[in-house]
Amino acid sequence: KLFSYIELKSATNNFHPSNKIGRGGFGTVYKGTLRNGAIVAIKVLSAESRQGIKEFLTEIDVITNVKHPNLVELIGSCVEGGNRILVYEYLENSSLDRALLGRNSDATKLNWYIRSSICLGIARGLKYLHEELEPPIVHRDIKTSNILLDRNFVPKIGDFGVAKLFPDNITHISTRVAGTTGYLAPEYAMKGKLTKKADIYSFGILVLEIISGRSNSKSWSEIGKPLLEWVRIRFYLLHISF
């Protein structure tokens, strides 16, 4: 569905700061109410956004054609003048990053049952992208801030701006590295060799973060090392190889 800029401006009360629910390198996300009363998340890309027009169109093309309970639903978009806006379903519990690692996080609400359910839900979403679509899709930026949670903490994978279609008849794609430090598979980060395994590596980091409640992109103050390095040290000390 195509929305007008005026309609989305009205839905967010002129993009009022009180409706702001997220911010990143791409721009700002607002909570909005459409004319029909539907509550949505409105992602407004900033003029200096790292997500250029190519990535913006990629995200629209990729997510418009996929439907799954563990993927964020794209409702519509707006391209008027210099404005590039995406309209998504609104998810009440924001991002996994905020719920798990944020300053005012709801980590105490995430008991082990919920955490395991989140892991399984993300895995189902990735399985759908990798094995049930033709051609498959490699997300390339699986991380806590790109996992959104609904009112029941059901996880949904979002932000398909750097996703790649992956034909079945090739083993890998050599491409420009995109993604987030701390989640990149070594062969992809160092050689630009992309396979579906890059998403699986990122998912593994995500599982460690969900279990530990720690971020892999930040060093632990008590040991001065990222989460993955700390895990490797623990495995070594316990004489476990992997």
Structural summary, described in words:
The structure is a single chain. With 242 residues, the chain is an alpha+beta fold. The protein has two domains: 5-89, Phosphorylase Kinase, domain 1; 107-237, Transferase(Phosphotransferase) domain 1 (Transferase(Phosphotransferase), domain 1), CATH 1.10.510. Helix content is 33%, strand content 19%. The longest helix is centred in the middle third of the chain and has 21 residues, at 112-132. It starts with a helix and ends in a 5-residue tail after the last helix. The relative contact order is 0.11. The mean pLDDT is 83. Residues 15-242 form the Protein kinase domain.
How many angstroms does the end-to-end distance come to?
Answer: 47 Å
- Give the strand order of the largest sheet, numbering strands 1, 2, ... along the chain: 1-2-3-5-4
Rg from Cα: 18 Å
Shape: globular
Specify the structural class.
alpha+beta
| Total count of strands | 11
- Report the CATH superfamily of the largest domain: Transferase(Phosphotransferase) domain 1
Domains (count): 2
GO molecular function, one term: protein serine/threonine kinase activity
InterPro entries: CR_Ser/Thr_kinase, Kinase-like_dom_sf, Prot_kinase_dom, Protein_kinase_ATP_BS, Ser/Thr_kinase_AS
Binding site for ATP: 43
Subcellular location: Cell membrane
